[in-house]
Design goal:
Layout: E1 12-19, E2 22-29, E3 37-41, H1 51-62, E4 66-70, H2 75-84, H3 91-105, E5 116-121, H4 124-134, E6 139-145, E7 163-168, H5 172-182, E8 190-195, H6 207-222
Parallel strand pairs: 3-4, 3-5, 5-6, 6-7, 7-8
Antiparallel strand pairs: 1-2, 2-4
Helix pairs in contact: 1-6, 3-4
Length: 223
């Protein structure tokens, strides 16, 4: 009679993704029997070490989704951005690097067969949507958390992937910006979810758990 062996947590592997003249670092986790891979796009001075996004990634891994948490700025660029705060708003640069990461995933033996989802927070949400617009055959779903999808501009009309916009109920200015973007996205399935009582960073009890649940269910459904 065999005994059940507890399943181990999937390992996180440091990867390096070339993009133009720079090389970006990321943490790739391949969940067992992965049904898709979710590429995270951070914004507003965040990084792949963000506890919020790492928590969401863990919940996605439990839903049989691989994840790639990566920095869209190099270490040197991050230091510059801490002083100037302008690189985090260079949406074209961030989007181009995210597209390169989508292409990179399509070249790796472990992920090339997996459909891609993009998860963007703050300004990274715009990059996530632009990547979906530029790689419609690869990016099959998009989730934005407290994001600025409005910064994707004319690319919003080119997004075909099912898109979920998650916003805190007390983040009134960002709710309005998400509602404006919602009206411009041409995908067949576009939904905005308001998390009651949550502020921009979803720091209230249970708020981030709700974000993770919504994101997991969306990606599981469409990947």
């Amino acid at each position: 009679m065999s005994r059940d062996v507890p399943s181990r947590e999937p390992e996180s592997n440091l990867v390096r993704v070339p993009s133009g003249r720079v090389t970006l670092e990321g943490d790739l986790v391949i969940a067992r029997d992965a049904r898709g891979v979710v590429l995270f796009a951070h914004g507003s001075g965040s990084s792949r070490h963000s506890p919020r996004n790492r928590y969401v990634a863990q919940v996605l891994n439990e839903g049989r989704l691989a994840t790639l948490l990566m920095d869209l700025l190099t270490a040197e660029e991050e230091q510059i951005d801490l002083r100037t705060r302008h690189l985090r708003f260079d949406i074209e640069m961030l989007a181009g690097r995210l597209v390169d990461a989508v292409d990179w995933l399509g070249e790796q033996p472990e992920t090339r067969h997996l459909p891609v989802g993009t998860f963007g927070s703050s300004t990274g949400a715009a990059a996530a949507l632009i990547a979906a617009a530029r790689r419609p055959a690869r990016v099959r779903a998009v989730v934005s958390r407290g994001g600025r999808p409005d910064l994707a501009g004319v690319s919003l009309a080119l997004v075909a992937a099912p898109t979920l916009l998650i916003v805190g109920g007390r983040d009134e200015a960002v709710i309005e910006l998400n509602e404006q973007a919602l009206a411009q996205i041409e995908a067949d399935e576009v939904v905005i979810e308001i998390v009651p009582g949550a502020t921009h960073l979803f720091e209230e009890p249970g708020a981030l758990e709700e974000v993770a649940r919504l994101a997991r269910d969306w990606f599981v459904r469409y990947l």
